[in-house]
Amino acid sequence: MSDNESQESMNTSSTLPGQERYVAPADTVKLQDVDSIDESAPATSMWADAWRTLRKNPLFIVSAVLIVCVIFVALFPGVFTHQDPNFCQLEHSLEPSSAGHPFGYDTQGCDVFTRTVYGTRTSLSVGVLTTILVVLFGTLIGALGGFFGGWVDAVLSRCTDIFMAIPLLLGAIVVLQMFRTSGSVWKIVLVLTLFGWTQTARIARGSVMETKNLEFNTASTALGSTPLRNLVSHIMPNSLASIIVVGTTSLGTYIVSEATLSFLGIGLPTTTVSWGGDISNAQTILRTDPAVLFYPSAALAITVLAFIMMGDAVKDALDPKSRTA
Amino acid sequence: MSEKNNTNDKLLAMQREQGPILEVKDLKVDFTTGDKNVVHAVRDASFTVYPGQWVAIVGESGSGKSTSAMAVLGLLAGTGHVVGGSIKLEGEEISGDTRRQYEHLLGDKMGLVPQDPMSNLNPVWRIGSQVEEALKANHMDVSHEKRSNLAKALAGADTEPQDEDQQADDDETFIGSKELPDLLEAARQALDEAGVAGKKAENVMDYFTEEWIPGSETRWRVADDLIKAGVAEEKAWTIAKSYVLGSTMTDRVAGLLQEAGLPEAATRARQYPHEFSGGMLQRALIAIGLACRPDLLIADEPTSALDVTVQKKILDHLQSLTNELGTAVLFITHDLGLAAERAQHIVVMYKGQVVESGPSLEVLQHPQHPYTKRLVAAAPSLASQRIISAKEHGENAEKLMEHHVKGEETLERSEHIITVSHLTREFRLPRRKEMFKAVDDVSFSVKRGTTLAIVGESGSGKSTVANMVLKLLEPTSGTVTYEGQDISGFKGKDLLDFRRHVQPVFQNPYGSLDPMYSIYRSIEEPLRIHKIGDKKSRAKRVRELLDLVRMPQSVMQRYPNELSGGQRQRIAIARAMALDPDVIVCDEAVSALDVLVQDQVLQLLNDLQAERGLSYLFITHDLAVVRQIADEVVVMQKGRLVEHATTDEVFDHPRQQYTKDLLDAIPGGKLRLGLD
Questions:
Q1: What is the pLDDT averaged over residues A225-244?
Q2: Distance between CA B267 and CA B448 in Å, rounded?
Q3: Distance (Å, rounded) from C-alpha A124 to C-alpha A77?
Q4: B371–A14 C-beta distance less than 8 A
Q5: Is B329 helix (H, G, I), strand (E, B) or coil?
């Protein structure tokens, strides 16, 4: 008893002001169960999260509206104009805009509005088809290299390097010379894919290599999963986000590349309506009639801008760094 | 002892006289989230720190302990801001200060030792330059020690009182590396003159060489050392005054690093962060935090990323250093045992509020708030025995005893489910010719229905052993047998069968679940891989498993990023249990979790063992956890097995010095608990 007392007195004497024993009343802070789950919040997957972020992004809304419009024009050009883009009358050469012909006429007397509307399909199909092929081929090469590593990776990476070393324009000129007469967009698509898959392959390779070393793959292996199953069901889905980001961002650049090739005269023949071709034709009369150059260029710029903005928005939404771990 | 008491009383009197160095009253900190929601991170928190005192703030993650500390430092991240209450530093209100005003306080008056040593040093700067930067930013005089009043007074208390003129500022001049050889020579001569010779003189000189560190030892200490060695007082002061002339920046940087416990500091100062281990980086950060001799050091979980033995060494060192300098330390930790061991005063925080505070031992021995009681009950370092499962809890004492005896018998008799013999694994290190032996001739066996723990520091090879037992890694030599069969031969169907019976639970609850998989798909995955049941029966099984780990069925549609670490770990356990395995290999399965959550997961593992007779191979660096779960312990050091015995034996009669060190390092392990 006396012992206790002396200890008590010791304690009080050694306690400094402001450091007295304090116990919060039990009812002010409600004690929760250890590690309780907040069941009120809605369930979200990565994709649902990304969609929620996207929906709120004005950049996405603007670009999505533009892209939908562009796609509509590409699919149904007939809704906007009843003329044939290749129906040209020299008598109308370089006439200014009039009723039914809002953009006026070019040197050949073709309706600029009609040609711009019909050019959409060419540009868009080149962009979309190239993107699809590039993503498929690039991902395949990159994923295989990244997943297997060793000599497989060495061979595939060197191939990628070789293709990367060839300048797009130089390569395109050489290859396209062989198909000068063909008017199909496929030749452009194939050329762009041939020299464009390398970037996607590199991204896919890096992404797969990174995902491959994450612990859930080890966990899966220990559950009895085979390496190939890991690749398909864990590694690829987790690498997809970064590949999609490159895909959307580069779609715009493929459209530009097609225009460049057509402008240089090695792309599509003049019989195929395309913005690049029209821009090329209009350059000679730039000083006298800039409007002829302006419309296809503006259409090209808006379309490319829309896709690049979309790519940016998707990147923001899918960026692994902004995602909560 | 009485001398120590004397100093303590003196310290106490001085603390009372000087008043608190930091006084936080009713502090409120809010964070605004994206949707204009306000999160009250800290609500009405009050605590007081006196000069020269260690005060610990204890709480789980999200309790607001770090936020409170950052508010004091004026370094609140992002959208956080102080919305109420007061923060007084040496009696002056600082909570409303601007960033510029804070710049004068930081470093000089308040120092910080941050949590993660890896990310808090600039990787492209030499360690020394980073210490130098701290000194330069605060315009520190590198040739003189800056000693707090408290330190001066305390130092005066245990040394001879000196003349007025000798107490002048000059006596705080550091030794310079240039003058050091001359100083030592002069000291030797002085010793000769004083008649100290032979072995004794050698010893004294050795002591001088060791203690007189340029940029760290001061003139009056040199004089003091000489006087103590037997040199006449006048002579000693003459030597000190003529050879201790102040240090250069380089000396000071090395001196600071040496003080922080970094050996060969002058060489180390020229190295880059990647050349340092985690413990060494933390020492460098301590040197930076203390470089400008702050009166208050805020240590935000300074050692939670380190091994326990390293943690003990660093904290021991920090404690002696701050005692000497008279620095007050505000110590943030989640470990109640560690807090009680190091601090005189404890503040327990929960959900942004202070729920209990008081003298450490008193809080620990007589916790009053239900949350503190819960913490004390769960703290592994304070637990003294293996968890008894809830099932066994209900039975009366006699039956419990009976079970225990039975348990021991089965321990002796039962067959070994996993046997590891002469296991060795070598790795080729980059740029090295010789092979590195990660695991070196390790043999042990896991008895059916029991838990064998492998304990060791990081780099001891314990996880490599786990991976070989799981057949995720092939051993260089030696064998692992499961139920008497060598697993190295397993292929195809055999391997699948083995995987079905031996399941892992990994350390990182954030990495081991695929973020793209819903909880349902994650738990269902093993059933799918092994082609068990149809869609309907699998769904039923997933529900069963969620019940087993005590998770509500509503989590099935959720994704891992929505769950806490402990919840994810429970999902990982559910996934491991899906195939009804015999053995679970837990690789640091609870190491990343808060104490309470850790306790919960351990209880769960234990209950599962009691219900299903599971065998565990439990890999951990934390001996405290071992006591709660293991029947047998294997201690590993540098790839070798150094001790293997039952848990009680290891704890009560450790045979190896290494094991003793590990036991010693358990924070709060020696504190006595008087649980009511």
A1: 88
A2: 52
A3: 13
A4: no
A5: strand
Cα separation of A81 and A113, whole Å? Answer: 8
* A228 part of contact set with chain B, CB < 8 Å: no
Is 80 exceeded by the pLDDT of residue B558? yes
Residues A294, B285: Cα–Cα separation, whole Å: 62
Dihedral sign (CA A142, A148, A149, A154): negative
Rounded CA gap, A108 and A88, in Å? 6
Please tell me the distance in Å from B576's CA to the nearest CA on chain A: 8
Residues contacting B160, CB < 8 A, separation 6+: B227
Predicted ipTM? 0.75
**Measured between CB atoms, does A91 come within 8 Å of chain B?**
no
**Residue B425 — φ and ψ, nearest 5°?**
-135, 125
SS (H, E, C) chain A: CHHHHHHHHHHHHHCCCCCCCEECCCCCCCCCCCCCCCCCCCCCCHHHHHHHHHHHCHHHHHHHHHHHHHHHHHHCHHHCCCCCCCCCCHHHCCCCCECCECCCECCCCCEHHHHHHHHHHHHHHHHHHHHHHHHHHHHHHHHHHHHHCHHHHHHHHHHHHHHHHCCHHHHHHHHHHCCCCCCCHHHHHHHHHHHHHHHHHHHHHHHHHHHHCCHHHHHHHHCCCCHHHHHHHHHHHHHHHHHHHHHHHHHHHHHHHHHHHHHCCCCCCCCCCCHHHHHHHHHHHCCCCHHHHHHHHHHHHHHHHHHHHHHHHHHHHHCCCCCCC
Start-to-end C-alpha separation, chain A = 56
Stretch 447-476 of chain B: residues touching chain A, C-beta under 8 Å: 470, 472
Residues 6+ apart with CB under 8 A from B51: B14, B15, B18, B21, B148, B150, B295, B326, B328
| Contacts of B647 by beta carbon, 8 Å cutoff, 6+ apart | B386, B453, B626, B627, B630, B631, B632, B633
Neighbours of B366 (CB within 10 A): 16
Q: What is the pLDDT of residues A105-155, one digit of tens each?
A: 887 788 888 888 998 998 899 999 999 999 999 999 999 999 998 899 999
| Cα(B604)–Cα(B589) distance, integer angstroms | 12
Nearest chain B residue to A42 by CA: give it.
B558
B551 min Cα distance to partner chain A (Å): 9
Q: Which residue has tokens 């040609």?
A: A115
Distance from CA of A254 to the nearest CA of B (A): 31
* CB-side neighbour CA atoms (13 Å) of B660: 5
Q: Specify which residues B618 forms β-bridges with.
A: B453, B586
Q: Do the Cβ atoms of B176 and B246 come closer than 8 Å?
A: yes
pLDDT digits (tens, 9 = 90+) for A168-210: 888 888 888 888 777 788 888 999 999 989 999 999 999 999 8
Residue pLDDT, tens place only, B606-647: 888 988 889 999 998 888 888 888 999 999 988 899 999 998
Cα(B39)–Cα(B31) distance, integer angstroms: 5
Q: What angle do CA B637, B641, B647 make, to 5 degrees?
A: 95
For residue A20, which residues of chain B lie inside 8 Å, CB to CB? Answer: 358
Alpha-carbon gap, residue A260 to A256, rounded angstroms: 6
Three-class SS state of B14: helix
Contacts for A243 with CB less than 8 Å, ≥ 6 apart: A135, A138, A139, A200, A203, A204, A207
Q: How far is it, in rounded angstroms, from Cα B17 to Cα B10?
A: 10
Helix, strand, or coil here: B462? helix
- Going by their DSSP bridges, the two strands B477-482 and B416-428 should be labelled as antiparallel
- What is the enclosing helix (H) or strand (E) of B518? none
B246 Rama sector, left if φ>0, alpha if ψ -120 to 50, beta otherwise: left
